[in-house]
Specification:
heterodimer, A: mainly alpha, two-stranded antiparallel sheet, 9 helices, globular, B: alpha+beta, outer membrane lipoprotein receptor (LolB), chain A, Protein Transport Mog1p, Chain A, 2 domains, twelve-stranded mixed beta sheet, six-stranded antiparallel beta sheet, 22 strands, 23% helix
Chain lengths: 272, 363
């Protein structure tokens, strides 16, 4: 079943169109930076964007910081939100369930497919950004081996590569949390649009609440609270505090919302 | 499994994961019989103690003081995340963590280097006698020493212990007897063994909400590794040296004035003969800085942008919570700011205008 879902995902034209659209934004930013040589003012741009003018190898991280707060979660919400509600709306869910597979396995397969979409998108964005960063960005006149950590110390190339992959993995986990919420709403809503919009409203609401002092008591439980904590991987020494909390929080969202999806879907009447 | 049981299972999982992080906070703090006077003494003499940790600060003082003092406005009006490694007063590092980078201070003997990731630049300067507040002043042990500076045993009382960053910390309340301060009281929770303040809350007026809170979220009383307080910048970081740390230091060195020894009944804290004066002790403290005409005009405009600003013939006054700011308009332009009452600040401004003298070749 997982193979079927993955095959559907990879053969879908919409998957690749979405990936390319998400990839286009950081690529455009990279080209504009290269042409104008104008970085953001300190404190105003996404993480790492000011540094890529001198070190192009950091552009995959800047690209991640560009797509992670909004574009990637929107795409994940749409993809995972369609998982059950989309099949139901198209009238295919009944036929899927006729096959001798459990509903739990179907949910697992849908979540794996949503995660595969996240992995694919993040890797394409990172690879494109690396090529753009190395070829167009960076100060070619400065010949320095390695990079500079956010704390100003040297980072060797293996350290930078290792931490970059950890950051990509962390971003993927954050999106798995979004996918779990969307999957649950997909079992509740009658249309995929409703599930996607419901998921988006949750993370937009979360981002808004994070800016309010009055929400102090619930800050640490908000789903977007630690999304950008991957920057802490590039401090010296690495600040694990928010990363650990982020992993636990996203794991919790995945566990609770996947369990809720299962609780709701296991005996749901499927008539369409 | 029935739907009821399935949903009960989901509710149980949700309850467990929500409550699990709260459990450590429910651990009671152990009581301590240390006296308030003893605890105060330990806080005041904790300067040479080593420690490291992660600190969060939360300021509620919205200072409308323009671009020249924007760092101060952030310091006392924003939330900040800091990492600190403190070997002693001569070797420490305080990193301000930002979403888009870091702004770090590394102190080595008489020099302090200020590093900004987004500018890829590290600027070293000698540590001056007089400077504006900076992030290293906001870490709880420093804040504890600053607020209790000069305080007497009659001004403190004990508060129940609280668990701060996993440490059971006895509490101390400082209620200043001076009628010149705007600070009502300061609550501190202190590591009993070292005297290091772990949490400091500053209250102004009758408000039950602190105007400034700084607290460790992670704390270790072990001495940090020497490498963690060392000056180890990558080759891609541009290095520079600056003669002055900030606007107050620059004015103190180069403005051709000499401030009086005493204003509004408060003694000058520094022995130097400079143009900038810091007066008072503890939470009854003010600073007087001369400004160039253009800087004074910018600041006046910023102050008048606030509805709470009051303009008189003598100058412009703005009181924001516990901090009062006054910009003179008679004689030389001096800005005075501090945690003192408006009356004290106005008296101090009169004394500055009357007592400031030219120095050096301008005398």
């Amino acid at each position: 079943m997982i193979r079927v879902e993955l095959s559907k995902l990879l053969r879908s034209r919409r998957t690749w169109t979405t990936v390319l659209l998400i990839d286009a934004l950081p690529t455009l930013v990279g080209v504009l930076l290269a042409v104008t040589d104008l970085g953001p003012r300190p404190g105003e741009g996404p993480a790492f964007l000011s540094a890529v003018l001198t070190d192009g190898t950091l552009f995959p991280l800047a690209a991640l910081a560009i797509v992670l707060p909004l574009f990637l979660p929107i795409a994940v919400s749409v993809t995972a939100g369609e998982a059950i509600a989309g099949e139901a709306a198209a009238g295919t869910l009944r036929y899927v369930l006729v096959r001798p597979v459990g509903r739990l396995r179907l949910l697992v397969a849908k979540l794996v497919a949503a995660m595969a979409f996240v992995v694919l998108t993040v890797l394409v964005v990172a690879a494109t950004a690396y090529v753009v960063g190395v070829t167009l960005l960076g100060d070619q006149s400065v010949q320095v081996v390695g990079s500079t950590s956010v704390s100003g110390t040297s980072l060797s190339t293996p350290e930078l590569v290792g931490r970059t992959f950890l950051a990509l993995g962390y971003a993927m986990l954050c999106m798995l949390g979004v996918a779990a919420i969307a999957l649950f709403l997909s079992t509740v809503a009658s249309s995929s649009l409703g599930a996607a919009l419901g998921t988006m409203s949750i993370f937009v609401g979360s981002s808004l609440l994070l800016t309010l002092d009055a929400s102090e008591a619930i800050r640490d439980y908000l789903p977007t609270r630690y999304w950008l904590a991957f920057v802490d991987l590039f401090r010296d020494p690495i600040l694990w505090r928010d990363l650990q909390a982020g992993v636990i929080l996203q794991g919790t969202y995945v566990a609770v919302f996947f369990a809720a999806a299962w609780a709701n879907f296991a005996t749901k009447d499927v008539t369409e | 499994m029935t739907p009821l049981r399935r949903w009960s299972l989901v509710a149980l999982v949700a309850a467990l994961v929500i409550l699990a992080p709260l459990l450590p906070r429910l651990l009671p703090a152990s009581a301590s019989d240390v006296t308030a006077a003893e605890l105060l003494s330990r806080v005041q003499t904790s300067g040479e103690r080593a420690y490291s940790g992660y600190v969060e600060t939360d300021g509620a003082v919205q200072l409308a003081v323009g671009d020249d003092f924007s760092d101060l406005a952030e310091l006392f009006g924003d939330r900040m995340r800091l990492r600190v490694w403190w070997q002693d007063e001569d070797a420490w590092r305080v990193n301000r963590l930002l979403l888009s980078g870091e702004e770090d201070l590394v102190h080595d003997g008489e020099r302090t280097t200020s590093y900004d990731y987004e500018r890829a630049r590290a600027v070293t300067s000698r540590d001056p006698e007089i400077r504006l507040p900076r992030t290293s002043d906001l870490v709880p042990p420093s804040m504890g020493r600053i607020t209790t500076d000069g305080a007497g045993a009659e001004e403190v009382s004990r508060l129940p212990a609280r668990r701060i960053a996993g440490v059971s910390a006895p509490g101390l309340r400082l209620e200043p007897t001076s009628e010149q301060t705007t600070i009502d009281h300061v609550d501190l929770w202190v590591d009993e063994d070292t005297g290091l303040a772990l949490r400091v809350e500053v209250y102004a007026g009758a408000s039950s909400t602190p105007v400034l809170t700084t607290a460790f979220r992670e704390f270790s009383a072990a001495a940090p590794e020497p490498a963690q307080v060392a000056d180890t910048w990558s080759g891609q970081v541009e290095r520079d040296f600056d003669d002055t740390v900030d606007l107050a230091d620059a004015a103190n060195q180069y403005a051709p004035f000499r401030v009086p020894r005493r204003v509004a009944g408060l003694e000058r804290r520094t022995a130097g003969n400079g143009a900038v004066g810091v007066y008072g002790t503890g939470v009854t403290r003010l600073i007087a800085v001369p400004l160039r005409e253009g800087d004074a005009d910018d600041l006046r405009e910023s102050l008048l942008g606030s509805p709470a600003a009051v303009a008189t013939d003598a100058g412009t006054l703005l009181a924001v919570g516990p901090v009062s700011v006054f910009l003179t308009s008679e004689g030389f332009s001096y800005v005075l700011a501090g945690t003192v009452t408006d009356e004290t600040l106005l008296r101090a401004a009169e004394d500055i205008v009357a007592g400031v003298r030219l120095r050096g070749r301008f005398e």
